[in-house]
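User: I'm putting together a teaching handout on how sequence relates to shape, and I'd like one worked example. Could you take Reverse transcriptase domain-containing protein from Parnassius mnemosyne, show the sequence you're using, and then write out its predicted structure as tokens right after it?

Assistant: Happy to. First the sequence, then the structure tokens directly below it.
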Amino acid sequence: MDPVIITPDDVAEAVRRAPNWKSPGHDGLHHYWLKGFVVCHAVLARQFQEALDQKSLPSLFTTGITHLVPKDRDSTDPSKYRPITCLPTIYKTLTSILSARITRHLNSNQVMSRAQNGCRGGGRGTKEPLLIDAVIGKVVKRNRRNLSAAWIDYKKAFDSVPHTWLERVLELYKVDCTVRDFLGQCMGQWSTILCHLGQRMTAAENHIRIRRGIFQGDCLSPIWFCLSLNPLSTLLEGSGRGFQLRKGGTKVTHLFYMDDLKLFASSRSHLVELLNITCDFSNSIGMELGTDKCAILHVERGRVANSEGMDLSMPISIRTLSEAETTDTWVDSDRTERSGQKSPHYNDVPQSASSEIVSNEAVLAAEAWWARLFKRAYPA
């Protein structure tokens, strides 16, 4: 990665992309004012560059305000509150500039796996993995194929990724050393103050240090988090397993959307291999699976097969979905097809994509879509 030199144009672009009135942090500054006072851009660029070169930032800019929003009224259970952290606008502007440079480096070197759909610019969010998933379901159903799939959920994913791994992954993908050192220094200063109903719950000097997890609320957090899970995609794609849409065609091993992972395999034994890779990787970086939200599905000759939960290399067990739990889904859709109704998944994909799925060329359409997805993510 080339050394980062911050210019006034970088500041102007970062400010232009930001919402005008998004809630600020301690600085109390909205982006609206930075957009209007363009004379400040040169000063900010110079100060940002000095902070980057000195690899330090005042603690004011690395301290957030976490507002606890109750999910239910009059709740006394801490788990019933949703934490929303507001970061200083100056810090978000700086990390937005760094995020743009890191993203450019990742795209130019085709670092990010094409299976990750959560942080790719120009993507369609969940619609692309949903389309691929729907096509696989149609292929399995029509051709009476075998399929083993697993839904994997990480427990408190953003809050549990270790800081040591966040630093290590920047080094693995050759992010500029100055940027790495600067982000590592800022990460050591991350802290927050809790607020409830507009009132601070802790004294101003009693900050809660963030010793694990990623600081959310800025542009850098999503790409940094996805980058921390990117080695898992490399391991899964290199396993040689997965589900092949047609002979000699594309083999799909998994789909990612941020921390939500779905695995595909052509047999139960192959799925066990993919699950063991996932568990071993997660254990090595210190992240834990939320087994209560994980599930496995086995399909034999186009129909859901009942089986016991699956034991893996780690001391955890993942439950297997029964046929009753998959009624009217993309696999067990006999009744839906006979009634002439479309699967609920069709409501969430583009109309042109839906027509491709319905046609007899579903497999070719899926591979064409996958190729276009890859080409858009990594243009020549």
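A couple of points you could highlight for students: The CA atoms of residues 98 and 220 lie 7 Å apart. The first helix runs from residue 8 to 17.
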